[in-house]
Amino acid sequence: MGRFAPTPSGRMHLGNVFAAMLGWLSVRSRDGEMVLRMEDLDTQRTSPEYAQVLRQDLLWLGLSWDRETPPQSQRSRVYDEYFQKLEDLGLLYPCYCTRSQLHGVNAPHLSDGTYVYPGTCRNLTQEQRNAFHRAPAWRVMVPDRVWQFTDRVQGAYSLNLATDCGDMVMRRADGVYVYQLAVTVDDGEAGVTEVVRGMDLLSSAPRQMYLQELWGFPHPEYAHVPMLLAPDGRRLSKRDRDLDLGQLQKFYSPQEILGQLAFSAGLLDRPESVSAQELATVFSWDKVKKEDICLSADMLKNL
Ligand code: GLU
């Protein structure tokens, strides 16, 4: 079983369509099921209107799903239970660090700019905790252990959560649960066996695998697909309204868009018009490129 897990914070751009297309193809080429879930934890940035447009856009492209599970914004009671399980395992602790402490110049960062939580609040005494007089975030302790898995697109990948990430926030100080918790619970409860998404989330896989183990969910298979880059090398983003579907729909058919994307992915020799159903008959992960794909200005013109 696969899933679409869009964040309804704007129209899909071509990169979102690319990942959704490959996720759908992987599942449908083997007659598998697909679930849809709106990832709207961030209620400031997301809206039911965008969720509705997303559903319409997926259907317009011919990317269907079998059922929709409740949006994350309605599931905090369920997340409470999983949070409690971590508490029962003795793995949670309150963290009072401020943003500037965490991200300031003296905070430890890895060479790629990601930041590693150094465990500042792990061993505070009750007295020290009481002295803060403010609501804490809650972190789960991570083990000093290497997580290894084989991504269908990217190949072998490993990460040690202790040295590459540090103890992870599970609930923010304002009470909102974080993406890693919600996504692991939702995929686990829905019985998702295959996660297809952008390369930018590759390092989230070991984080989620750790939580899956704690909660007794089996690990799904992962496929982290290349990112699409604008001709100037930037990643496409919703904020820049890059090639969003609202614009594209004015000029192109779903078959033209899918054909271009399938060609960029390595699934077709030429960018010909093709339906999602037709693509399912030629789909294979072995053909899918692993490097980021830079869209040529030329190709954008044709699209
Ligand atoms: N909601 C995320 C997004 O729209 C995807 C999360 C995931 O696939 O795990 O980028």
Characteristic key phrases:
Glutamyl-tRNA Synthetase, domain 3; alpha/beta; 3-stranded parallel β-sheet; 2 domains; binds glutamic acid; Rossmann fold
Summarize the helices and strands and which ones pair or pack.
Elements: E1 2-4, H1 14-28, E2 34-37, H2 48-61, E3 67-69, H3 76-88, E4 92-95, H4 99-103, H5 126-130, E5 137-140, E6 146-151, E7 155-160, H6 161-164, E8 168-171, H7 179-190, E9 194-198, H8 204-215, E10 221-225, E11 228-229, H9 245-251, H10 254-265, H11 276-282, E12 293-294, H12 297-302
The structure holds glutamic acid.
Residues 5-7, 39, 183, 197, 201 line the site of glutamic acid.
Residues in β-strands, percent: 15-25%
Look at the structure and give the mean pLDDT.
Answer: 93
Report the C-alpha radius of gyration, rounded: 20 Å
Main sheet: strand order? 1-2-3
Uncertain regions spanning at least 5 consecutive residues: none
Using the alpha-carbon principal axes, give the shape: elongated
Proportion in helices: 25-40%
What small molecules accompany the polymer chains?
glutamic acid
DSSP summary: helix tally: 12
Question: How many β strands by DSSP?
Answer: 12
- Tell me about the biggest sheet? 3 strands, parallel
Distance from first to last alpha carbon? 31 Å
State the domain count: 2
CATH topology of the largest domain: Rossmann fold
